[in-house]
# Entry
Amino acid sequence: MSGTDERPAQAPSAAARPASLTFTETDDGRGFDPASTGYGTGLQGIADRLGALDGSLEVTSRAGAGTCVTGTVPTSPPIPEAKEEVLTS
# Structure
């Protein structure tokens, strides 16, 4: 027997994975009023990329109070709804 571990690798089960991954970035900068200011190129690019992965982006900010950016991405594809079948005899 060689000195290597010959057992097959085991992948984590789907139940062991979280449903989504989330990142948050905050700063204490100038902030802005989200109601009157749209996303700039950077935030829009992040929102588009997360959206392509069925994720989401939340931006909270207030003038003079900094900004918080939170993105969420699902870790697996959505489970399709079960279709009910009616069996007749």
About this structure: The beta strands are 20-27, 56-61, 67-74. Residues 31-74 form one domain. The chain has a mean pLDDT of 81.
